[in-house]
Amino acid sequence: MMLIQQFKSPPSCNFSNFTSNSTPPSQNHNNVRFSIKNHNSSSSSVSSTDSTPITPMNNHLNDESSNSASLMSSSASSKSPPYPGGMGPYTGRDPNVKKPSWLRQKAPQGEKYQEVKTSLKRLKLNTVCEEAQCPNIGECWNGGEDGIATATIMLLGDTCTRGCRFCAVKTSKNPAPPDPMEPQNTAEAIASFGVDYIVLTSVDRDDLPDGGSGHFTETVKAMKKSKPKIMVECLTSDFRGDLEAVSMLANSGLDVFAHNIETVKRLQRIVRDPRAGYEQSLSVLKHAKVSKKGMITKTSIMLGLGESDDEIKETMADLRAIDVDILTLGQYLQPTPLHLTVKKYVTPEKFEFWKEYGESIGFRYVASGPLVRSSYRAGELFVQTMVKESKSMVSI
Asked: Considering only CA atoms, which of 337, 354, 331 is closest in space to residue 100?
């Protein structure tokens, strides 16, 4: 597996990078990081290679969203091609909400970008960067100056079984079965690159009895066997609330258990697939923490979907109540008119406020910025230190 990606030491992120003032102290590091990334609990029906795609949910729920009728009317009159399933009450472009300058990104190009793209194709690896239309793909794949290698690869295939309204990953009720050799092949490939920190992720696989937790577990064990000192983070689905699956993965040798709650409680059924849920996500994060002493837990919230400040604070309080260690906050970006409408573009200054607020109430680390995504690369050295501290405390 290949994907050597270099970043300027302060900030960046995995799923997308954002350069902000809110990063941990810069460290001199020449380590290489390889992330096998997951599109956690989200998907879309924009494209599907399967004959049974999942269309976006069309729940007519009561929420605070306004002008939905005008948005649909505006979408219907646009010249864009029709989308499977049509528009819903929460989708369509809002002509009154303009993308601000701080979200502008250059089209991906450059020699390193092309090299990475060619290598991924040759190795037949699926990336969240491409599948989820990450806005930072050009910057991530072209690299920087800190010597950290990053790839964003999905385990368990490139097709999700859920139909969340915010995600561009393709969906199907019956995706192809997992490759039984993927755990071992992934471990061998990563070992050959000499990487230090791995993020494993996957699409949701509700078609599998264990939701794919066994596949994750086998991959972590294979990596640890190949390179005992490697640090492994898994960004997982909720495994349909199967706490035995959570416990199995937490005790596989994993260092960081990540699962995204995605949004505030009120917006869960509008934003996420009905099989996901606020309380279910909290139970998964809580169980991961108690299943293994010293386990570091992590989650992410998208902003700009119509949530209020009080609702964000309530969500943060709920996460701290179950001792979640790391929180990332980023701007929701609408991949197509079929997906959820952006209600607001949150300013960099407001994201900085949320970082300071989150750390003031007890999160050990908060990455917060318009283009921050679930796995924030600038924080990974900070997380490595956190993992080492946790291990030393457990051994005492």
From this structure: 331
Separation of alpha carbons 83 and 334, rounded Å: 14
Main-chain phi, psi angles of 20, to 5 degrees: -135, 175
- Over residues 238-252, the pLDDT tens digits come to 999 999 999 999 999
In terms of DSSP bridges, do strands 296-303 and 326-331 run parallel, antiparallel, or are they unpaired? Answer: parallel
What confidence tier does 196 reach under pLDDT thresholds 50, 70, 90?
A: confident
pLDDT reading at 383 higher than 60: yes
Considering Cα of 364, then 277, then 315, then 68, what sign does the dihedral take? positive
What is the rounded distance in angstroms from the CA atom of residue 189 to the CA atom of residue 194?
9
CA distance linking residue 91 with residue 166, whole number of Å: 10
Q: Which residues does 40 contact at the CB level (< 8 Å), separation at least 6?
A: 201, 202, 204, 235, 236, 237, 258, 259, 260, 374
119 CB burial (10 A radius; 0-12, 13-18, 19+): middle
Amino acid at 233: E
Mark 227-251 as b/e (b = at least 16 C-beta within 10 Å): beebbbbbbbbbbbbbbebbbbbbe
pLDDT of residue 189: 73
Q: Mind listing the pLDDT tens digit for each residue in 8-39?
A: 222 233 333 333 333 333 333 333 444 444 44
Beta-bridge partners for 256: 233, 296
For 36, 60, 99, 341, the CA distances from 75, given in Å and listed in that order, are 36, 18, 17, 11
